[in-house]
Design goal:
There is one protein chain. By secondary structure, the protein is of the alpha/beta class. The chain has two domains: 143 residues, DNAb Helicase, Chain A; 249 residues, Rossmann fold (3-Layer(aba) Sandwich), CATH 3.40.50. The protein is 49% helix and 11% strand. The chain contains 18 helices and nine strands. Strands 3-2-4-5-1-6-7-8-9 form a nine-stranded mixed sheet.
Length: 461
């Protein structure tokens, strides 16, 4: 019988393991960085190729970033960038000592036999910089988890933002001196005068598109109305125009309707089939023919539906980030704001709605997409003679009006007066428009097809 006592297993030391993990050298390739800079010092064409791939922060060695920025400064002024001129530029800026002196610039040129491969070396540097950002994000996420400083949902959201930022190229040019960009602005203005302004995401309504030039990246567009007026239908029209008519990815987050209800409305509008035929499950032979004709357009469209009940803003933000990373995202619809929650305790509902509004606006800027947010109006319109809504009617408004780039108040007279001479018409009251005029646009309300259309071109049965 073996009576040997087994050796004890050494205890696992979390601190020691973490220390070893964070002492690793970050991903980098000094030779590739030197070859990139050497190629740029040899060839003006190489500078243009590399500038499209790299930014100064992509270099691991700070001295290399300094040399890179000096080369681009000379290139931007139309001056030659070789070891002599770059040394003079760095000397003028008081940076020559930090990069190792003029001799190091000559070393960079000798490091690479030809400038032809500068773009290839730049890709190596770029990829390693992306891995470093991922490592840095992972470190910060780990620290967040251990610190546990705040609500869990807030930590998860911050971690998601860190990861999202790590896997995309960041735009750090938000703060600029006006004079440095004004010549570009004049050139762009001349181009727009000749060729027309760049169109944002189309809404499907010509008059609205003419006014807004489409829905633009970073905007939060609020569509508000009393219940059963058609705000969900209008938002679905925006999504259809984006995804089905123009093939651009769109996502709808509905807290009010089921997937079947949304699909019924989508099919009714796209196939021009009466909604009541679909909800009753009794389409006519003509309806079936129209459904078959529209089916390929619907099935091929990059349109995503999410009907998760009791969802939070944090969850919507995480899902939008994933959609954008997987295949892009051009439009987000949230139906509707007052059904959302932050997932944590707050002092009152108005503060919570204001916080969610602000988060959605920040998400629009972060993802660079327009976000259409539906909102309920209070009973104010019903207490006025003309029933027309006003900005002050936004329920639990808080910062909704302040955060929104555009507020569209939807109004239909026939909701309140069945015999109205304007039956079948809808007013889109542009009550706030940060980048244009406020006005009222009239559209045809084809609610039997679950859609709105231009007055001049109403679809026929």
């Amino acid at each position: 019988m073996d009576t040997t006592v087994p050796s004890p297993v050494p205890p696992f030391d979390d601190a020691a393991d973490d220390s070893r993990s964070f002492q690793r050298v970050p991903p980098q390739d000094i030779d590739a960085e030197q070859s990139v800079l050497g190629g740029m010092l040899l060839s003006k064409d190489a500078i243009g190729d590399v500038a499209e791939i790299l930014k100064g922060r992509d270099f691991y060695r700070p001295a290399h970033e300094t040399v890179f920025e000096a080369i681009l400064a000379l290139y931007g002024k139309g001056e030659p960038a070789d070891p002599i001129t770059v040394a003079a530029e760095l000397t003028k800026c008081g940076q020559i000592g930090r990069v190792g002196g003029p001799s190091y610039l000559h070393t960079l040129v000798q490091q690479v036999p030809t400038a032809a491969n500068a773009g290839y070396y730049a890709e190596i540097v770029h990829d390693l910089a992306a891995l470093r950002r991922l490592v840095e994000a992972g470190t910060r996420i780990t620290q967040m988890g251990y610190a546990a400083d705040g609500e869990v949902d807030e930590i998860l959201d911050a971690a998601g933002a860190e990861l999202h930022n790590a896997v995309q190229v960041r735009d750090e040019s938000a703060t600029v001196r006006v004079g440095d960009r004004y010549a570009d602005y004049i050139d762009r203005l001349e181009y727009l005068q000749k060729h027309g302004a760049a169109m944002g995401v189309p809404t499907g309504l010509s008059d609205l598109d003419n006014l807004t030039n489409g829905l633009h990246a970073g905007q939060m567009i609020v569509v508000a109305a009393r219940p059963a007026v058609g705000k969900s239908t209008l938002a679905l029209d925006f999504a259809r125009a984006c995804a089905i008519k123009h093939g651009r990815p769109a996502a709808i987050f509905s807290l009010e309707m089921s997937e079947e209800e949304l699909t019924n409305r989508l099919t009714s509008a796209e196939a021009r089939v009466g909604l009541h035929h679909l909800t009753s499950g009794d389409p006519t032979p003509t309806d079936w023919q129209r459904i078959a004709q529209s089916a390929p357009r619907i099935t091929d469209a990059p349109l995503f539906l999410d009907v998760t009940p009791n969802t939070t803003v944090m969850e919507i933000k995480a899902k939008c980030r994933r959609l954008q990373q997987r295949g892009g995202l051009d439009l987000v619809v949230v139906d509707y704001l007052q059904l959302l929650s932050t997932g944590r305790k707050v002092e009152n509902r108005q503060v919570e709605v204001s916080d969610m509004s602000r988060q959605l606006k920040l998400l629009a800027k972060e993802l660079k997409v327009p976000i259409v947010v539906l909102s309920q109006l209070n009973r104010g319109p019903e207490q006025r003679a003309d029933k027309k809504p006003m900005l002050s009617d936004l329920r639990e408004s808080g910062s909704i009006e302040q955060d929104a780039d555009m507020v569209i108040l939807l109004h239909r007279e026939d909701v309140y007066e069945k015999e109205s001479p304007r039956a079948g018409e809808a007013d889109l009251i542009i009550a706030k428009h940060r980048n244009g005029p406020t006005t009222t646009i009239t559209a045809a309300a084809l609610m039997h097809y679950s859609m709105f259309a231009d007055m001049a071109a109403e679809p026929t049965a």
